[in-house]
Amino acid sequence: MFLRRIYVLVIFLILEGLALHYYANSTVHSQARLLGISDAFVGRVYSAISGAEHYMSLGRTNRLLEGRLEALENELATYREHYSAAQLDSIRAAADIGHEYLIARVVRNSIGKRENYIMVDRGARDGVERGMAAVSLDGFMVGYVEEVSAGNAVCTSILNTEFRASGMFAGSSHFGSVSWQGYDSRIVRLSEVPKYAGFARGDTIMTRSSLIFPEGIQIGTVESFTLDEARASWDIDVRLGVDIAALKVVLLIKNLEADERLKLEEEVLGTVEQ
């Protein structure tokens, strides 16, 4: 019964095979054409098999890549630590021995408000105290520690309208008050600079020694300036030397002589200069 139902198909296939055989051997052109068709078909089959094998090996490849990525990340972390240590040594060399230093990673930061803060991953159990200076690893002013918990500290950013510090010209005794006007995240203001002070665009501005900041921490360079005739002083726009928004790590600096100096200034002057 089964053969009776498919005998027509069998006869067709036999005749088709004979026809193809005859066609393939009839001329050189037909042989070449059939050979090209068969090669294309075989190529597709091999391509499909190769694709399947590639897909099956993706899991192993991903595991190898993940392992390599982990190794590279560990290697990069080592280089970062060496770089941080080198930067720390250079800053220590520039400051006096009356300060202690602690590296901290930035965990939260803002620049879009009028009162911006920077949170770091070091706190009281690490020796962080209120009033410590915060600078970038390449030695630029960032802010100072405002509040401290056991494991974290919040720094008042230089991009905070309540921020105040004392800045001076490199190689000069003229100084003024550093503040932020609340507009441009790359510009701060050096005000109350005497009218007779000599300076030019591009001059370097750095910190003046205070209870918080060691002398010589860089702030930025003179961008522009205007004369306040009423007060006979300059208002100077200073372009920051560090991009606050890009901070990943900061250096916290503790003035070991702050308490002694604070007590002396309160006794003698009755006021304290920050």
Overview of the molecule:
With 274 residues, the protein is an alpha+beta fold. It has two domains: 2-54, no CATH class; 95-268, Thrombin, subunit H (Beta Barrel). Helices cover 37% and strands 31% of the residues. The protein contains three helices and twelve strands; from the N terminus they run H-H-E-E-E-E-E-E-E-E-E-E-E-E-H. The strands form two sheets. Strands 1-2-5-4-3-12 form a six-stranded antiparallel β-barrel. A six-stranded antiparallel beta barrel has the order 6-7-8-11-10-9. The mean pLDDT is 79.
N- and C-termini, Cα separation? 108 Å
Largest sheet: 6 strands, antiparallel, barrel
- The percentage of residues in β strands lies in 25-35%
* Count of separate structural domains: 2
H-E order: HHEEEEEEEEEEEEH
Overall average pLDDT: 79
Radius of gyration: 37 Å
Number of β-strand runs: 12
- According to CATH, the fold-level topology of the largest domain is Thrombin, subunit H
CATH architecture classification name of the largest domain: Beta Barrel
Q: Which bin fits the share of residues in helices? A: 25-40%
Low-pLDDT regions: none
